[in-house]
Amino acid sequence: MCGTMYEIPVRTTLKDGKYSVYAQWVEAFLRPPRSPLLDRPFEPKLVELRNGRKMVIRMATEKDLPLILDVLRDMINLQIDVDFFDLVAARTYAEILAILRKRIKDEWVMIGVLDDGTLAGQVNARLWNDKIAISLHTIVFKRRLGAGLPMYLAKMEYAFETLGVEEWWPTFESYYGFREFVLKLGTHMKPYPEYQHELGGATVFYNTRADWDNYIKPTWKELLGTRPVPEELLKIAENPKKPDVKEEFGDFLK
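^ that's the sequence the OP posted. Answer follows.
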């Protein structure tokens, strides 16, 4: 029982009946393992957005994560409740920070960088196991460009094409996400409450490899982008610039 003090039943070499441990030892229990599947690379690609804007989608490196956190902090501080941006920004912040703190299993992050170098948004996901990938969040920092769906498709592409999973499991906080990634992508629902998503215990939606091959890829071919990315755009995308989210979301402020 918590709080109960028991008499030590044997002799011990512990000083005053206490012991200490090195944090390095405890770290072995707290840090999740990393799947070797994530060593498989994602080749950057180019997507054409609305109004002719171009966006490079690439895998984020650890060097990119502080910038993403900085932008998410700005969004959280703005307290934008419209379309659940406050909740999505807060949850995404924790997921990105967990990578730096080594407290999340098998997560990957992708970013979209516009042709002027501005960070347009980020997507993240993780492996549940070798057969299932868990979609975490998709969040745009530049609005009215149609950047969300191609970035979401990019993380699905990596899961199915490169990691070789059989199912993709998302859930959704917002109506926008439901419209874009459930209705448009022919997404199914797992029985509830037998299956619950780790993001708040909500309904698990899912797509299969057959969905990806037979419907999603041919239907949304244009948004899957092209490769290779021209060298000049690839160079611009190497060092993304921070977007002004207050300017982007100013009309949502109370």
